[in-house]
């Protein structure tokens, strides 16, 4: 006959007080039950600690030093363009083995060299709320012929294989934040005239497949157009061909006023020969500089693309990333530079700007 529940409980409590452990077939003792419960509670507690640690500890990078773990949206809500970029640099990811190199947080993992200034070129200046450090580029000794200007880039005469997405590319986009910090254009250190200034201000671009360190496939910069300095998108579809330039109509100093962060983008469609410029998420009015068909589109059968060569590198803040010559130095700061192998639409440029400045 099975004892009532209250009676069984009383017997168990008596056993605990007297040290006896009644063994009822098919049942556990009260002490075994409590021990099982304590073990289960401890396991649950350990599991909770593990889950909490996994949620709060940062992800650990693996692989080579220039490899960066996939990142969630940044402080101000970076959109998909950063993840889609062939190369992306926010100057907040120095190579642990060499602070003079910046890790690429884009798809290609192409490291960038901070030329002549090293880690000192990273400065605490937010392009927008919550952004990472900025890159300072500038001329060092304008009165002396040399190649000591602060600039950034990557270079390989045989072609940078990690930038192969620009090989036979249909289109390209160069975009980022820029701030004029000095007297631009800078003095030309390559001439004997002490008052001569460069005819261009280098911002950022992808080199062509046969470049000497100056010629480009897709470039955002300021150059002389009809005797007047203009913000331009300058593209070259074929390595052996001519370039085309799309120049902003507005006064460059109003587009890039000294001491003010501005978001710029330049797009290039190598299939149809179209280019565009954007400032703070809005299209800029402009005009094509070279008449005719400099990209040889009418004589090239479809599908029309860029030359089937890997770019020889990226140049930022001036030409010749192999550091053999100073040319078109820029006294300015840059941040969040993106190099994409497609034409970003006007809506995407606007959305990217809003995400960074408004967080949505």
Automatic annotation (TrEMBL):
Pfam families, sorted: Laminin_G_3
Chain intervals for the UniProt region annotation (Disordered): 295-321
Record's compositionally biased regions (Low complexity): 298-311
SUPFAM superfamilies, per database record: Concanavalin A-like lectins/glucanases (SSF49899)
UniProt superkingdom: Bacteria
Protein name in the entry: LamG-like jellyroll fold domain-containing protein
Source organism of this protein record: Streptomyces aureus
High-level lineage: Bacteria, Bacillati, Actinomycetota, Actinomycetes, Kitasatosporales
């Amino acid at each position: 006959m099975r004892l009532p529940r209250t009676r069984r409980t009383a017997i168990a409590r008596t056993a605990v007080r007297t040290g006896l452990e009644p063994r009822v077939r098919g049942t556990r003792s009260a002490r075994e039950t409590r021990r099982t419960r304590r073990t289960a509670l401890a396991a649950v507690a350990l599991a909770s600690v593990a889950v909490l640690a996994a949620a709060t500890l940062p992800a650990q990078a693996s692989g080579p030093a220039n490899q960066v773990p996939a990142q969630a949206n940044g402080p101000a809500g970076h959109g998909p363009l950063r993840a889609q970029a062939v190369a992306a640099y926010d100057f907040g990811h120095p190579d642990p083995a060499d602070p003079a190199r910046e890790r690429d947080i884009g798809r290609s993992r192409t490291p960038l060299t901070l030329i002549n200034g090293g880690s000192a070129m990273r400065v605490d200046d937010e392009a927008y709320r919550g952004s990472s450090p900025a890159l300072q580029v500038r001329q060092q000794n304008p009165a002396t012929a040399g190649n000591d200007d602060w600039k950034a880039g990557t270079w390989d005469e045989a072609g940078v294989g990690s930038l192969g997405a620009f090989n036979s590319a249909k289109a390209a986009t160069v975009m980022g934040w820029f701030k004029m910090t000095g007297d631009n254009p800078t003095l030309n250190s390559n001439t004997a005239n002490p008052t001569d200034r460069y005819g261009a201000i280098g911002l950022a671009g992808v080199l062509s497949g046969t470049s000497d360190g100056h010629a480009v496939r897709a470039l955002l910069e300021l150059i002389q157009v009809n005797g007047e300095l203009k913000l331009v998108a300058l593209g070259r579809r074929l390595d052996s061909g001519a370039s085309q330039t799309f120049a902003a109509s507005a006064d460059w100093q109003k587009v890039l006023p000294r001491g003010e962060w501005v978001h710029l983008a330049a797009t290039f469609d190598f299939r149809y020969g179209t280019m565009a410029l954007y400032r703070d998420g809005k299209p800029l009015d402009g005009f094509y500089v070279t008449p005719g068909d400099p990209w040889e589109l009418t004589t090239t059968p479809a599908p029309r693309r860029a030359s089937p060569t890997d770019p020889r590198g990226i140049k930022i803040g001036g030409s010749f990333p192999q550091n053999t010559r100073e040319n078109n130095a820029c006294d300015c700061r840059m941040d969040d530079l993106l190099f994409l192998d497609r034409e970003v639409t006007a809506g995407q440029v606007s959305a990217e700007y809003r995400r960074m400045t408004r967080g949505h």
